[in-house]
Amino acid sequence: MVFLSFHLQGCFRRNVTVVTIYASLGEEALSYSLNETEVTTVICGRKELKTLVNISGQLDSVKRVICMDDDIPSDASSIAYNWRITSFAEVVRLGRENPVEADLPLSADVAVIMYTSGSTGLPKGVMMTHGNVLATLSAVMTIVPDIGTKDIYLAYLPMAHILELAAENLMAAVGVPIGYGSPLTLTDTSNKIKKGTKGDATALRPTLMAAVPAILDRVRDGVFKKVNATGGFPKMLFHFAYARRLQAVNGSWLGAWGLEKALWDFLVFRKVRAILGGRIRFILSGGAPLSGDTQQFINICLGAPIGQGYGLTETCAGGTFSDVDDPSVGRVGPPLPCSFIKLIDWPEGGYLINDSPMPRGEIVIGGPNVTLGYFKNEEKTKESYKVDERGMRWFYTGDIGRFHSDGCLEIIDRKKDIVKLQHGEYVSLGKVEAALIVSPFVDNIMVHADPFHSYCVALVVGSQFTLEEWASEQGISYINFSDLCAKEVTVKEVHTSLVKEGKKAHLEKFEIPAKIKLLSDPWTPESGLVTAALKLKREAIKKTFDEELSKLYAS
């Protein structure tokens, strides 16, 4: 079963294993995943059905397709492809007329085979048992404050993402209504919202959300862009109120709480809260590191705690979760009740558990939430999973962390993202990108390092709104946004901004890109350059922009 939505609970009730696959993986990866798991029934939308038609000759086992839309495309003929295509409305009718008893699963039964989008090669299917899922959900229920039927959850991430699967299962378990949206229709100003109509958050007015950092970064950037464009007294008032609240969060000005807090909420921040419906009381962030600036923005402007979690598909999203009352930034909290976490030495990268002032090393997660391994891939499973003498199953994450004295974990690196430069310096690509993406001129960025050079370079997707506003202020004429990004003066301005942010983040000189290529077209899952969770697909980006990268090093 594939292309999961609210059918998940029905499949669980009948002990049917569900396969989740990102629709944006591409035709080769899609046919590979469907054939490897011998899927017989596919659940999808009209758009995905067209993709299935394109690869129909490559599919070995598909017999039934359930289309969520009633208007099934005429070229998806069941006669041509030996498929039985049924609308979801018809499935509902059949189920009502032919009720069946539950066939409840055991804890060790495989609930989900989730295919990771990955950044290289073909996707891997992670096998999660019902016990894995319940371990994570029961642990998170002890962390999220007072979750119950009075809440409303806004779901907009793909259910093929482990964070969303865990979140929606949790909501179903405690009876929280779920409203479905999309990243492109989330707010009133989102790309796919018709001018004058409401976004998903405004219409639903949720109290709970799960989010990936890329989405929260967009909300933050959108607010600051609007405030700065307004100018004058409103701009001054916003930044003054923000500074006062930041002092309160940092504990340096207690007067910014109480009556003053209520004043700023009424005069300034309630307008910001309206962006996400005005009722958000808790946000869970996961999937990638959240910048300190964005975390502070959410705490201050939305007035809601943001719980930053750390987990992987291989650990069924379980790992760590920050405490609700922890105002610190850059950390992902202590281990969840279902998880055991240890650090092991990585001498090659210079990270050791006896480092001072904090132990550092590769993060290894154990516990009942650690999954069985990779479907039909015993070699990769043995490489990443280990079972100790007590029978505890551990997953070796490849992420580098350090433990603070209060037991909170901080993610500081990733083994795969570290490149050694010509003179022996190590550059952590992910760390540098996280520091530079806060530049208002940047919509996305990929840093590239080469062992044969002493410096790194970067591909930068420009922020159209900010750059066009800057060009207007500078009196710079241009034909279109692509033309603006190609101008030397624009590239110089963006690079200057990156150097400024790099110094602010205390990056070493060799970590700050010496040269950049400014791009005008955004990176989307549809383009194949980022995953559905908006993580960079480095190999795909490097292949697409190989010529541009070569020119940066040659110039």
TrEMBL record:
Domain AMP-dependent synthetase/ligase: 8-375
InterPro entries per record: AMP-binding_CS, AMP-dep_synth/lig_dom, ANL_N_sf
The keyword Ligase is assigned to this record: yes
Keywords: ATP-binding, Ligase, Nucleotide-binding
Any Pfam family hit: AMP-binding
Reaction catalyzed: a long-chain fatty acid + ATP + CoA = a long-chain fatty acyl-CoA + AMP + diphosphate
Highest taxon listed in the record's lineage: Eukaryota
Gene Ontology cellular component annotations, sorted alphabetically: endoplasmic reticulum; membrane
Gene3D superfamilies named among the record's database cross-references: N-terminal domain of ligase-like (3.40.50.12780)
Molecular function terms from GO: ATP binding; long-chain fatty acid-CoA ligase activity
Annotated PANTHER family: ACYL-COA SYNTHETASE LONG-CHAIN, ISOFORM J, LONG-CHAIN-FATTY-ACID--COA LIGASE
The family this protein is said to belong to: Belongs to the ATP-dependent AMP-binding enzyme family.
Name of the featured protein: AMP-dependent synthetase/ligase domain-containing protein
Organism: Sphenostylis stenocarpa
Lineage: Eukaryota, Viridiplantae, Streptophyta, Embryophyta, Tracheophyta
